[in-house]
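Holo prediction — iron/sulfur cluster.
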Amino acid sequence: MKKVLIDLSKLRALDNCQMEAIDPHLLKGKTFKTIRELASFWFTCRRCQDAPCISVCPADALARDANGMINRALNLCIRCKSCITACPFGTLMNDLFAVKTEGYNYYDLNNEQELQQFADAYDDEVVRIVEFDAKPEENIYKLSEKVWIKDITWSDSIDN
Ligand code: SF4
Ligand code: SF4
């Protein structure tokens, strides 16, 4: 089965990310979350015990879920970026929570054509189509059935 492999560190280094991807299977209720946001909280975030991102948030929009992962409530977030600044590990990208409308593309990665289009929109070293299994030994982890994320994680305790 084809999957999209996203090198999160390289994606993070891009100045202006004009393409986002979503995976409807990862939506909780009707919450719209991009792959970049989910991957950042799942793999890059160090899950600080005192979580400065949570304490600095003026809207109480950040909270831990049952797995200890940080979750952002879209209906509460006022996109002030305080959490991005407060995070000592650079987990969150500067444009991650911006409202993107005109000229912006969201790709549904459960659609084969859009999966390919999303991959084609980036250099291969950033996003590409692969057919191999997740390889934790190469820092390649499963985010969903269609999405592999390459990133240096802080913990080897992530269940893949
Ligand atoms: S951008 Fe502001 S309101 Fe939104 S989660 Fe971060 S700190 Fe909270
Ligand atoms: S401050 Fe950064 S690393 Fe720490 S819990 Fe928040 S997002 Fe994760």
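READOUT: DSSP finds five helices and eight strands in the chain.
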